[in-house]
Amino acid sequence: MGAWGVGSFENDGALDYLASVEEVGASLIAGSLGQPFVEPDLEMDDGVEVLVAAEIVAAVATGKLDRLPEGAEDFLTSLGDLSGLKAQAHAAVTIVRDSSELSDVWAETDHHQQWLADVNALIARLS
Q: How far apart are CA 47 and CA 91, in angstroms?
C-alpha cells in the first residue's frame, strides 16, 4: 500500500476504492461495511475500504466534507441517504481499529498513535 499519511484517504488503495464508489454507487459502500462481520481475518485492503466507506457515510450524515479528497463531494448527492448505515459503519470501523491486518500494519510503525487518533475521530463522527 502506497501511503503518505495516516488519514483514511492518504493511500493509493483508498483513492482507487473512492473511484469505484463513484462508478458503482451506494451498494459498494454497504457491501464494504458488511465485510468485517463475515470475514474474521479482515485483510489490509478490506480495512482501507471500510474506512473510506465509513468516511463517506460520516460526510453525508454530518454534511462535513473537509476530510474528503478534492472533487469527491461532487458525486455524494448521487449516493442518496446513507444515514441508515451509520451504526453499521461505526461497528465496522471499530472492528478495523481493534482487529484487522490494517491495524496490525499500523501498529508496527511510528505513526500508530496518529492512525488510532484518526480512526477514533471517525468513530466519533459516526456516533
A: 13
Phi and psi at residue 73, to the nearest 5°: -65, -20
φ/ψ of 63, rounded to 5, equals 80, 5
| Positive or negative: CA dihedral 110, 68, 54, 126 | positive
State pLDDT tens for residues 20-57. 998 898 899 999 999 888 877 889 999 999 999 999 99
Cell (9 digits) for 29: 459502500
pLDDT, tens digit, for every residue of 87-104?
Answer: 999 999 999 999 999 999
Q: What is the amino acid identity at position 92? A: A
User: How many CB atoms lie under 10 A from the CB of residue 9?
Assistant: 17
DSSP string, 72-111: GGGGGGGG---GGGHHHHHHHHHHHHHSSHHHHHHHTSTT
Nearest-10 Cα torsion for 111, 43, 58, 122? -30
SS3 of 41, please?
coil
Per the DSSP assignment, residues forming a β-bridge with 3 are: 11
